[in-house]
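// run 5 | inverse folding | seed 20
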């Protein structure tokens, strides 16, 4: 059984981002793609990507090597301070790395 692609969408002041759990990258995406991805509730199959998104979007994610089938079965997200995340993204960060642990007691 093939696993799904797991992702998180982030909307900060009208800028739309995709957090790819497999590559630990945050990408700026178009509002149209954000809206389409929102319908999949954070999980999508590879064939659903091809069926629902433009060739341009597919080429871009392939070029960046994101939205591949996930190594993880479940992912939890907690962005406790949107301002800090927004400030970091706006300082021209190319990507963010999120560390996943077996147990997190923050």
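// decoded
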């Amino acid at each position: 059984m093939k696993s799904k692609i797991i992702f998180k969408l982030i909307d900060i002041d009208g800028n739309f981002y995709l957090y790819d759990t497999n590559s630990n990258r945050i990408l700026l995406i178009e509002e149209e793609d954000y809206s389409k991805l929102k319908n999949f509730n954070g999980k999508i199959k590879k064939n659903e990507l091809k069926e629902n998104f433009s060739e341009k979007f597919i080429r871009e994610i392939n070029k960046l090597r994101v939205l591949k089938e996930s190594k993880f079965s479940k992912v939890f997200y907690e962005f406790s301070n949107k301002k800090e995340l927004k400030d970091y993204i706006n300082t021209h960060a190319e990507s963010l790395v999120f560390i996943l642990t077996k147990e997190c007691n923050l």
